[in-house]
Design goal:
The protein is an alpha+beta fold. It has 14 helices and ten strands. Strand 6 (176-179) and strand 7 (182-190) form a beta hairpin. Helix 3 (85-92) runs antiparallel to helix 9 (235-249) and helix 10 (265-308) packs across helix 12. The radius of gyration is 32 Å and the shape is elongated. The chain starts with a helix and ends with a helix.
């Protein structure tokens, strides 16, 4: 019986190909969007987690932020200049803090030989490489003494070093380059780190933060302080102590006026998960709405189909076909149409997700393609449910037709 009903449904779909194609469009677009959103969301999350993987899990980040009480006034984080060396030294004095260094970044022109380019300047303390778990390709990282005495030494990312020296990364060691018009000696080249989102650390220029403050940027503050902890089980207590130190140093009594933010590695992961999950949910809801619109289109088409086949329904019922058989026939047809649309949408969605990952990789964004098994399952399950739900009413109507009235219809 089921084979016969399926055969009738297939025959009906084939005999109205143009109508079937138009009916499928809403389901195809909805399924494609759902799978594309979930796949790209997973890929984005993986990229961010890979980028965060370059951060040590025992680090805590103290960053400037606009106080809640003045955000309406449009105060930018770049205007917060209260995070300074005293904060760094007070944080470093905490018993659970192993290392702490200031951080500031900017952009500037790097000149070398006959070439020049604008690079990202990473002004960081001498403990940056150790605290971040970075290794050297050649040479060394600058020392605490060189940072304290504001030496003009520079460490290059691997790609940048290869451009600076015709002999490759090792040949860059000892060369003199100019950064913002000031001469610096190359003392080291970092091992390859890989692209991190829109920033490529392998093309960065790393200089002592005090040198950058006094000789390049003309400032005495930091954008952030990074502290490496000895015991992460005491992280909450240490973060509380850091908060009290910064409030005391910045003369803050109202927490709403905090001009800093302190986050741990676990909090960063949680924030990333919340953001990517929220974006995926929002776009998934939009895709779901598209599927519902497609479901309404299927219901309308099925009503038209029932009206066109009224005599056929009347004849079958006059020959003894039960109501349940009539109902199953039209339900199978509705579900089959949605399954076809869902399958086509799934294939297109996977192909588009893969294509976008290839394009992203070509432009250096390292966008990872994640085959959306979960999205395909959710998408196909959703379209089958939509086919059943929106096909039920027309099928029910067909099963309740009076055979005599149906046979008399024009």
């Amino acid at each position: 019986m089921w084979r016969t009903l399926l055969s009738l449904a297939v025959h009906s779909i084939e005999s109205n190909r143009k109508r079937t194609v138009l009916t499928l469009l809403g389901i195809v677009v909805g399924t494609l969007t759902l799978i594309l959103v979930l796949s790209l969301g997973n890929g984005l999350q993986q990229i961010i987690y890979q980028q965060l993987g370059s951060l040590a899990s025992d680090n805590v980040y103290l960053e400037v932020k606009s106080p809640d009480t003045v955000k309406s006034a449009g105060l930018s984080m770049l205007q917060i200049t209260t995070l300074d060396e005293k904060d760094e030294q007070d944080v470093l004095a905490l018993p659970n803090v192993q290392r702490a260094y200031g951080w500031y970044n900017g952009q500037g022109k790097l000149q070398y030989g006959q070439g020049e380019q604008t690079v990202t300047i990473m002004a960081v303390g001498a403990d940056y490489a150790v605290a971040s778990g970075l290794s050297m390709q050649s040479g060394r990282f600058y020392t605490l003494a060189e940072n304290a005495s504001q030496k003009r030494v520079i460490v290059l990312g691997k790609k940048l070093a290869a451009e600076v020296s015709p002999q490759g990364e090792a040949g860059a060691i000892g060369q003199t380059v100019k950064l913002l018009g000031k001469s610096f000696t190359v003392v080291g080249v970092l091992a390859e780190q890989g692209t991190q989102g829109f920033f490529d650390p392998d093309k960065g220029a790393y200089v002592p933060v005090k040198t950058a403050q006094k000789q390049l940027f003309g400032i005495d503050h930091y954008q952030a302080i990074v502290a490496q902890l000895l015991d992460m089980e005491q992280a909450d207590k240490t973060i509380w102590q850091m908060t009290q130190i910064l409030r005391r140093n910045h003369h803050i009594t109202d927490p709403a006026k905090d001009d800093f933010r302190i986050t741990s590695y676990d909090e960063v992961l949680s924030i990333v998960g919340d953001i990517t999950g929220g974006v995926s949910l929002l776009l998934g809801v939009i895709a779901g709405i598209s599927l519902l619109v497609g479901g309404v289109g299927i219901m309308n088409v099925m009503y038209v189909t029932v009206a066109e086949r009224t005599k056929e329904i009347g004849l079958r019922k006059a020959l003894g076909a039960p109501e349940a058989s009539i109902m199953r026939q039209f339900l199978i047809e509705a579900v089959l149409v949605t399954a076809l649309g869902g399958g086509l949408g799934a294939v297109l969605g996977v192909l588009m997700a893969w294509g976008l990952s290839v394009v992203g990789g070509h432009f250096g964004y390292g966008w990872a393609f994640v085959f959306p098994w979960e999205a395909v399952g959710i998408g196909m399950g959703t379209v089958l449910l939509i086919g059943f739900v929106f096909g039920y009413s027309p099928a029910r109507r067909a099963s309740l037709l009076d055979p005599i009235t149906a046979l008399r219809s024009e």
